[in-house]
Design a protein that fits this description.
This protein is of the alpha+beta class. It folds into two domains: 1-37, no CATH class; 87-186, 2-Layer Sandwich (Ribosomal Protein S8, Chain: A, domain 1), CATH 3.30.1370. It is built from four helices and four strands, in the order ααβαβαββ. The protein has helices at residues 7-17, 87-94, 111-127, 148-157, and strands spanning 102-105, 132-136, 166-171, 181-186. A four-stranded mixed sheet has the order 1-2-4-3, sandwiched between helices. Strand 1 (102-105), helix 3 and strand 2 form a beta-alpha-beta unit. Helix 3 packs across helix 4 (148-157).
Length: 192
């Protein structure tokens, strides 16, 4: 059983409750006069599971809370690569309003050759002023997305020497290769 509120607790709660606006049909608690104790408040009767209210005594319907606003996707804790592309920019790339200026296919390359080719490709694309490129890694030998190049590419894109040119990375849309390809957003080249 709950203990009754002490007068100072009830007064403090009244001060807090006075700053709020009660719902229609409700009222705020009033502090008892000095020297009196607050009467204990009985808890509302518990509903028995499976019982329905009598006809004509239906409780008012409450509006169910809507879905929470969608937050932009964030990299998972295990994501080894750079930040994800901003959602609006990703949408522009998918819809081809921000065109994919160049494509690189890493199929058939060894691990070391793929890394060197990727570095050279990104530096050249950034130097030419491209803003979005597509890097095709493939999904691996079994098509499960766990191929060596697929796993390593985000790590390579997060390398210190590429941080100044790579703005973000995200998985490509299905029509551009889906899980076997990555969009790479490049930063603007400084004028001068």
């Amino acid at each position: 059983m709950k203990r009754p509120l002490r007068p100072e607790e009830h007064r403090l709660w009244s001060v807090v409750a006075a700053t709020l606006h009660p719902l229609p049909g409700r009222h705020t608690a009033v502090a008892p006069p000095e020297g009196e104790t607050a009467a204990p408040v009985a808890p509302p009767p518990a509903k028995a599971p499976g019982l329905k209210p009598p006809p004509g005594k239906m409780p008012p319907k409450t509006k169910a809370p809507g879905p929470a606003p969608a937050a932009p996707p964030r990299p998972a804790a295990s994501w080894p690569g750079p930040d994800l592309i901003e959602p609006n920019r990703h949408h522009r790339i998918v819809r081809e309003r921000d065109p994919i200026a160049a494509r690189l296919d890493l199929h058939g390359l060894t691990y070391d050759a793929a890394r060197a080719t990727l570095d050279a490709f990104l530096l050249r694309a950034w130097d030419e002023g491209h803003r979005a490129v597509l890097v095709i890694t493939g999904k691996g030998s079994r098509g499960t997305g766990d191929g060596a190049l697929r796993r390593a590419t985000p790590e390579w894109l997060a390398a210190a020497h590429l941080r100044s040119i790579v703005a973000g990375v995200s998985e490509a849309h299905r029509r551009h290769g889906g899980g076997g390809a990555l969009y790479v957003a490049l930063k603007r080249k400084p004028r001068g």
